[in-house]
Specification:
The structure is a homodimer. By secondary structure, chain A is mainly alpha-helical. Chain A has nine helices and three strands, in the order αβααββαααααα. Chain A has a three-stranded antiparallel sheet. The radius of gyration of chain A is 20 Å and the shape is globular. The structure holds a DNA duplex (30 and 30 nucleotides).
Chain lengths: ~240, ~240
Amino acid sequence: MASKVKQVRTAATVRKPSLVEDAYRALKDAIRDNVFPPGYQGSEQEIALRLGMSRTPVHEAIIRLQEDGLVRVLSKRGVQVCPLSPDDIREIYDVVIAIEARAAELLAALPLEARSQVAKELEEATARMEQALRRDDLHAWATADDQFHRLLVERCGNSRILRIAQTITDQAHRARMLTLRLRSKPTGSAAAHRAMAEAIRTGQVAEAHHQARQHRIDARDELLPLIASVGIKHL
Amino acid sequence: MASKVKQVRTAATVRKPSLVEDAYRALKDAIRDNVFPPGYQGSEQEIALRLGMSRTPVHEAIIRLQEDGLVRVLSKRGVQVCPLSPDDIREIYDVVIAIEARAAELLAALPLEARSQVAKELEEATARMEQALRRDDLHAWATADDQFHRLLVERCGNSRILRIAQTITDQAHRARMLTLRLRSKPTGSAAAHRAMAEAIRTGQVAEAHHQARQHRIDARDELLPLIASVGIKHL
DNA sequence: GCGTTTAAGCTTCCATGGAAGTTGGCATGC
DNA sequence: GCATGCCAACTTCCATGGAAGCTTAAACGC
């Protein structure tokens, strides 16, 4: 047949997503969106039923989620969605502080053209944040803020940093959604973001590090007392 | 029966290790110790046979190892031990630089008594390094060096930092073993370690950060050219 | 009524077989 | 000799059943 082209093996070869992959993504999203709230406990059988597949792919997806720190499997008693304590939030922030600060350094150390491009995109994301804030659209603000921070770790040229940041961000997502409503309008972020982008654009490595680090420290110091004040034990 | 005491449920309750856990550890060690060299490709069936168990626990252990970045499973073609390119080493160092520097900060910010204790143990590990070096015992030196760096992330009070450091260290282990023989005698490390311990003892947060960071940067800048010079493409 | 035992119903854990996909080599045509 | 198509062997992927462990509560002894 004429359409039977030789399939070149490349990294971009589309692979049919396996059931395990489907289950992994579905469960991850369900946890993110509080379909399975923190502390929720259920059986693999039940989840398999809900996802319309056998127990095996669910079981294997849960192994991966456990490795990601999103669930824990209690032997013979079911699987539980990990709740986040204030102490967990503190731990997560420490990782983000370390990782993003390093990513910012790496970005600032890029050749002129590359780092200019990144800085441009960072500033665009920041502009979208300010715009959303003027419209009082907190959801859009959070999206643009996400994009900014994703850019940091995506463009730094280190896949391991990207992966760590993604994993830790997934863990923190629920807390982020909660605090988004609690805290005052995040007007300060844009300035910090601009300072970061500017440091990256001009190749000031130490300054980029400092800005990224301080930005996250400030966020932590604002949010941790907030969480403590509402007396939440876990989320 | 008198011996039938009520089993109190605690975190320390010893759990019978599952076959999956056994397979996971056995495979991890086998990869570390080059029983399965980088690039090695085999089938789960074969590994299961070698470990004397069924395919299922091996399959699940491999899922975890893949999540750890130690192997990758090529669909329908077997599982491969991830080789490390020089670029991977660079990535790994960036993560270590970020993580350990933050850990050192956290340690230096500990209350006086706690950080004194940690500093003491760090200095003891450093002393063991110097001692080993005088005996020309590179293996003992590496062990003591490991202990020092493990202490950093173990005592910083952040389980996520500990986990990330462990995972990345596992990935880097083979490279470390190789370069241990290649490089000149690591006489400079002890001084850097002492400076770090001292900064932690005296609670100088910024200095602890700087020392930890610079120590790893120096190591990287020594090792990467070394690896490039011997022209190794992957290990 | 109260503490103890026991059993039933959960659960994960592991083994195994079949389905679907990939590979490498051999036969075939030219 | 060389390219092409096909087939057999091997692989992961997934379903399913049984084994073993945990939990709960009812049955039982006193």
